[in-house]
Amino acid sequence: FSDNPERLKDISLVEAIGILIESGYNILQFYSLREIFLSSDSDSWNDALSRMEDIVHGEIGRSDRMIELCSTDSRFGFHSEGEGYKFFPAKLQWRIEQLHNLLGKDFPAVKARMEQKQNPFVEGKVKTYVCNSGKQEKSGNFFWSADYAEGKLQIFADDPEDNEFTVFVEEKPFFPPRKIAFRKQVKIPVAPSGDTVGFNIVSGTIDPNHPDPEYIGWETFEPLKIRLNLGIYDPAAKGKLILTKLSSA
Asked: For residues 16 and 67, is the Cβ–Cβ distance under 8 A?
């Protein structure tokens, strides 16, 4: 079809669709492999890291090829409903740079920690609260406490201004949190992956469109620009609830 421009465009379109499908699959594979590092089976970590590194190298090549395809057909990356481009050569080049950063910084850092028999991921110090302790935790101008029993997390909050509260509960690392608004108290079914959950409680209605919002939280909370299913949540803005069980006495 070298003398048939329309058929050549069809062939390029099929190739571009294939690249997008492969990349989507690789993203899911990368996330699945990353979860292996949450296990205590350190023997599986090296293999997982090597496979993740292979995925990143492959995605650099796919991005390079997609740049070439975009340069020959301006339809690629255009979102008709959104009336704009979801991807284009400059954005794909930015992606390539981010992937090279992973290979040059993140992967070597994880490897170095593994060689020293350390946890692959560095976990900074965060606030902790022991469920069922009966402790009233003060955050700004409000108090809250938490109980846990039979797979349910119960949060109690007291605010002299009777504001609404929002809690973020991260049942599993790397997963988007549950976001729940309430007044006074709420009971939340949870299925944690361990004996802790990521947690933050914020006083006031969270409005990402507010021109100058001010929120009082257990951990400092500043809504991020909306990002896919993470929404306005900042994964760094959390402490930990330790899920001790209620005494049977």
From this structure: no
